[in-house]
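FIELD: query
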Amino acid sequence: MGLEAGLENGGSEGPKKAKSKYSATRRLLLKSKLLRKAESLLVEEKKQKDLERENILRERAPPLNLSGLSIQELQELCRDLHQKIDVVDEVRYDLNVKVARNDAEILSLTQKIYELKGKMKRPNLKRVKKSADAKLGALTDTRVTKSDFKANLKTVKKEEEKKEEVTDWRKNVEAMSGMEGRKKLFNAGQ
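FIELD: result
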């Protein structure tokens, strides 16, 4: 039957595209119903997870009854809670170290896989900005720029720092006091 339909359409053309069983409005209605159902399922799943979480927390950390306890009993309870906290912190730290170690191992193994496949990951290159003069110079003559490289380097001159003599400040107090002293400092700065 498919061959006959192809021959009736002119022979060279393939079978026509099948029309959808449902109209556009029907498909839209079905889609909206599916979305509503999925949303209700997500809400139910979230409520169930919250309920499970509360049950686990009640089981692991029962509520404290502090009424009617003496000071010594409260102190003993605090010590016990501190010991439990220390144990949990140690376990958490150990797990963090294991996770970090596993992450590093996964990274190294993926790098080895890339090396074995021959697909090396190229590093991100930083864009270098060139001035218009530098671009023109590169286009005109590259040999000249290579030979003049040392000539274009800036020369740095080292200036010797003037070291002031260290003198006793008590001898200079009277000479530098008042307007005369300020005038000397101003003239010395110029």
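FIELD: remark
The chain has a mean pLDDT of 77.
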